[in-house]
Amino acid sequence: MTITEHEARVAPEPIDTESTADTVDDAAVDAFGERMFASILGAVETMAVHVGGRLGWYDALSGGAALAAPELAARTDTDARYAREWLEQQASVGILTVDDPAAPADERRYSLPAHAEPVLTDRRNLAYIAPLARMFAAASQAMPGILDAYRTGGGVSWQQFGADARESQAEGNRPWFDAMPAVLADVPHVHEALSRPDARIADVGMGLGWSSIALASAYPQLRVEGFDVDTASVVAAGENAREAGVADRVRFQATDAAELAEHGPFDAIFAFECIHDLPHPVEVLRAMRDAVRPGGSVVIMDEAVADAFAPNAGDLDRLMYGFSLFVCLPDGRSHGSSAATGTVMRPDTLRGYAREAGWSDVRVIVPEFGFWRFYELI
Fold first, then answer.
1. What is the tens place of the pLDDT at every residue in 70-99?
2. For the chain, which terminus, N or C, has the lower number of CB atoms within 10 Å?
């Protein structure tokens, strides 16, 4: 048999493109194309929101200010031509309003509507979500490393994501941490532990320290020990505590939470939105069990994702998969032998980690708190 004959025998059947095309629903193609186009437009808006936040343009436009491009540039020490393009883009998508669209380009005056200020500029408001744009911008800067990790099974560490990721997470969480003590006050045994004279608690993975500061501010006798492996976060958290006037009762250290038992015992231990990031969560949960006093509480705040995976998920799961794809999973896998949990940590996943660490079970004590829920290990 000749090579040509062999090729003829093993060659795949030709694809009938006309027949395949006949089976495709043109309306479905158009609808899916429109969905993808809308997603791309959303990505453009996200990048533009990041620019406006980082350059101080939204802040300059807040409070009813109506500014033309040269004025905005002068107030923020930025370039007027870029400012003009951004202002036009923001008005074109309906974020900003413009007084006289027909005026010459550099004379048009733009304003930030009052309803947009809590979302884009009010850093203590629960509606403030502008930092989400900054987080995904940080991920885009790390994209070459993320792609390499996807090919090799490696990771991209929190340190590699840089200040944008660290600061955006802290800014986005801060309003919720400010509100958190009032929520925990409705959980009697947790409130009792925090109210105990000279109570001492641990805040695992405290980041820039806003969770520790919020608890110390709400409970004047409370002493808080914060633990984080990111040195830059520890330094910034210390400065935040000093500015908040609680540095005499709040202390931060760059320590692996797996060593928590060496620093105990604690009346209560908290881990706010970090267990899913940990490369070795079982070790940390075991250390928590060894570090808490008998009868003390161990409380985990993590993402309030659905109990189980399902196609066509809700918005919260969709957002958390975004964080997982581009931040949390690459960070988790930047450490050896990582559990690789990812942001979408289902309740049964946490329950499995807890039982492996020697706990009996996990119960939900606050089912919904913004993007999160509170669990207690028992």
1. 999 999 999 999 999 999 999 999 999 999
2. N
